């Protein structure tokens, strides 16, 4: 059995409202963690993000499971819920979603996402995996028109090719077979307002320096707030560390 230690932060940045949402729920040995970044006029973004997180966590709590099929169904259910809400609220509202599912007894994890909110997986002091954005810039990178630095610098970096609430449909990326977990593995689930300002090398450095998951998030949040960008987006993240259930003292 693994023990899970987590923390979350969500900041308004320099925007008028916080259109990010996040949350987590545990049912027995199964855990679901979710981050959503909403967009849309007249308050539609924060409504969309809240609907995504509430739908994902509520559906998982009612019927927990850790598999790629479950992860995809959770995002698809959130997409359906936002489409319904659009009929009575704001037509142009949509949202991203990044979610992580962990089975502590089986020591396995899967994840899924739509949009440019990301899941990062860390092992042995390195970024082993990060999700691939559903964005115009990522499409350009895949076609050979630049490197990954464009995801942080290109003026059209926020244009998405898949998002929850799109009437044309949604593309959901899932991790595939469940990942076997080890003691010391860590995850970061975050919105683009977070990863745009905290480079992967800084994520690794601050993780090595941190004494807890709240401390790791606080160190990264200071990097975001210190960035001289003229208009900080909302920035939200959930940090996770897996440890031996009998380890003392735990990394809280």
UniProtKB/TrEMBL annotation:
Domain named PPM-type phosphatase: residues: 4-242
**Pfam families given in the database record:** PP2C_2
Record-linked PROSITE patterns: PPM_2 (PS51746)
**Full protein name:** Serine/threonine-protein phosphatase
What species was this sequence derived from? Uliginosibacterium aquaticum
């Amino acid at each position: 059995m693994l023990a899970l230690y987590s923390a979350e932060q969500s900041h308004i940045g320099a925007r008028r409202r916080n259109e990010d949402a996040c949350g987590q729920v545990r049912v027995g040995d199964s855990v679901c963690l979710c981050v959503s970044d909403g967009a849309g006029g007249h308050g539609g973004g924060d409504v969309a993000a809240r609907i995504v997180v509430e739908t994902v966590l509520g559906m998982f709590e009612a019927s927990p499971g850790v598999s790629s099929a479950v992860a995809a169904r959770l995002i698809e259910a959130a997409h359906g819920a936002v489409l319904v809400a659009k009929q009575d609220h704001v037509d142009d509202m949509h949202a991203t979603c990044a979610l992580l599912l962990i089975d502590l007894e089986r020591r396995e994890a899967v994840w899924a996402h739509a949009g440019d909110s990301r899941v990062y997986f860390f092992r042995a002091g390195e970024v082993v995996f990060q999700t691939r954005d559903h964005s115009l810039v990522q499409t350009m990178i895949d076609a050979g028109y630049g490197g990954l630095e464009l995801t942080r610098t290109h003026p059209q970096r926020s244009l998405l090719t898949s998002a929850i609430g799109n009437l044309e449909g949604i593309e959901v990326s899932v991790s595939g077979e469940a990942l076997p977990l080890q003691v010391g593995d860590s995850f970061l689930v975050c919105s683009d307002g977070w990863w745009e300002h905290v480079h992967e090398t800084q994520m690794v450095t601050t993780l090595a320096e941190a004494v807890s998951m709240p401390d790791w998030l606080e160190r990264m949040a200071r990097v975001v707030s210190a960035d001289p960008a003229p208009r900080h987006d909302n920035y939200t993240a959930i940090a996770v560390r897996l440890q031996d259930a009998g380890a003392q003292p735990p990394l809280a």
